[in-house]
Amino acid sequence: MRSDSHCFDDHGRFRLGWKLPIVLGSALLSLLPFSGPLQGHPAGLGIFLAAAVLLWWGLASLRASDDRGRLRNGWKVWGFIVLSGLLSAITTVVLRKVFAITKVGNVGQVAFGVAIGLAASWICLRAERESLASIGFVPDRRWARELGFGVAGGAGIMLLTALLTMGLGGFHWIRGTATLGVAAWGFLLYVLVAFNEETLFRGYLFQRLIRGLGEWPTQLLMAGLFAFAHWGNPGMHGATKAWATLNIALAAVLLGLCYLRTKSLALPIGVHLGWNWTQGNLLGFGVSGTTDTPGLLQPVFHSRPDWLTGGAFGLEASLPCALVCGAVVLALALWKPAPSAAPSIATEA
Asked: What pairing do the DSSP bridges indicate for beta strands 171-175 and 297-301?
């Protein structure tokens, strides 16, 4: 009897099921020298080179095309990542060498991120003879309606989290120092942030991973990457880092379900926008560790632990946020939309 439990097939080659963990593991391993205790350490270079060799071997041993001659989704994912990095590098060089711009403000950085993400998505989709509409950018009434519903939903999640935290004695509000103009400028910034991060984390990359891996493996993978992407934010240490990582990962699953239930990026973009803007510019909390934007309200914290209030990092690092996000994730997981609103996604190798 033939057994599939061994690493090698009948021809002495690594099985595909063992190659994929090696590829993913070496990709994650290659990131270690850029964060944590190995950052700047001489051993970090050796780890990076070893991981790069493993990654190259793993990718080289995977077939690029399926049995019908089509490019596999895994290679589409890597192509998107490489193309995004290339466009980012070209943009940086042009800004510095052609326009002599060495520093760009927050709004400018995020705007360039949106442009790069959309450009990379468009190029990859054109190669497949598809349009941006195929990944959820459809400027029609339904899209606008879902965007507005998402903004209200994201605002509601943050307001409910804040009220729960306040009810547990975590803080009280006083009038903030922000003006309506500051709040409006913050809204513009968070519009760009929502478009940027949802294009990257729930757009082409997310959807091609779903075709290759399935919904929940992709959800878990992207939740980890989304949380990891925030590890460099201010205040990410100790218990705050643990709670923030959990809640940001839950938020990623929540946003992924928003896409999966609507097959549109309008709802996740709206939720992301409403979440950030309400938490920061309206309620006055930090947003993922960013605390330099005043709110229309200002929380005054009581003598409570940071795991209850989120502290300076914001509500995203609190227990109430985990409870509220968990409840919303469960509701979205149980929600069965109309078939016309959510066509199925076939899983491909």
From this structure: antiparallel
Beta-carbon contacts of 11 under 8 Å, excluding residues fewer than 6 positions away, are: none
Specify the DSSP element, H or E, that contains 298.
strand 297-301
By mean pLDDT, which of 26-35, 122-131, 196-205 is the weakest? 26-35
Gyration radius of the chain over CA positions: 22
* Rounded CA separation 116/130 (Å): 18
Convert the pLDDT of each residue in 272-291 to its tens digit: 999 999 999 999 999 998 87
Whether 64 and 104 have beta carbons less than 8 Å apart is answered as: no
Q: What global pTM score does this model have?
A: 0.80
Give the span between the Cα atoms of 24 and 29, in whole angstroms: 9
| Backbone φ and ψ of 255, nearest 5° | -70, -35
- pLDDT for 183 beyond 60: yes
- As a whole number of angstroms, the distance between CA 53 and CA 27 comes to 10
